[in-house]
Amino acid sequence: MLRTDPESMAGTTLAERIEARIEADIVEGRLLPGDRLDEEELAERLSASRTPVREALRKLASSGLVTIRPRAGASVARPTITDLVELFEVVAELEAFAARLSCARASEDQLAEIARMHALCEHEAANGTAESYFEVNRRFHGAIWDGSNNSALVDQLRLADRRLSPYRRHITFHPGRCKDSQSEHRKIATALATRSAEAAATEMRDHVMILSEDAVQLARNLRL
Predict the structure, then answer these.
(1) Would residue 1 count as lying in a domain?
(2) pTM
(3) 46/157 same-domain check
(4) Fewer CB in 10 Å around end: N or C, the chain?
(5) What is the pLDDT of residue 4?
(6) Of 48, 51, 75, whose CA–CA distance to 64 is shortest?
(7) Number of independent structural domains in the chain
(8) Which long-range contacts (CB under 8 A, 24 or more apart) does 109-112 make?
(9) pLDDT, tens digit, for every residue of 145-182?
């Protein structure tokens, strides 16, 4: 999941802390698709040399958040609408698979954690901000991934989530989206609580694909 607190990354290298800072700026909308990432400017702003900045940008490029072109340098990735739809389609199937596996493999403690995260989502949807809901929503999905007890699947989901996080975050801030999301979450949570594998997979797939439809509109607004 996103490293939302780069300052607390004890034991990490400078390049990793810079990577986390730039990633947070992208996900949280301070850096927008297509924005240029000048090494010298970033080095000055982050009080670092260009070497760790360059290393951080290369790692972000490998995860799909940054694009690096010869002579043009680095910029925030600017996917096409087709790119976004295809990525959401892949994530929908991966998340559906995770939900199905969680029904079969999750321990009682893991199911309890999923239920706890769902309750937190309910609370934040009713009383919190879009920002706080976005964070607990990520934790709800992460608890389901963990319940799959399949580390290879979780690795792929985390990688894809990094690429989609900027768009998921924007969608969460749309008026009424938190309420709609919770209606979808309730169906997922109910299926997981009763270990109804096919229902959990179907509800999760539908939930993610609804986000895909919202992402298409967002991409048009951003003129991707």
Answers:
(1) no
(2) 0.81
(3) no
(4) N
(5) 46
(6) 75
(7) 2
(8) 110/143, 110/146, 110/147, 110/149, 111/147, 111/192, 111/193
(9) 999 999 999 999 998 988 888 888 877 777 677 788 88
pLDDT above 80 (res 129): yes
Question: 19 and 93, same structural domain?
Answer: no
Cβ-based burial of 200 (10 A; exposed 0-12, middle 13-18, buried ≥19): buried
Q: Please indicate, yes or no, whether residues 47 and 88 belong to a single structural domain of this protein.
A: no
Q: Which domain holds residue 98?
A: 81-221
Judge if 68 and 149 occupy the same domain: no
Contact between 172 and 130 under an 8 Å Cβ cutoff? The reply is yes
Measure Cα distances from 177 to 12, 21, 51, 91, 171 in Å. Answer: 36, 27, 41, 19, 7
Cross-strand partners of 69: 73
My answer on whether 19 and 106 are in the same domain is no
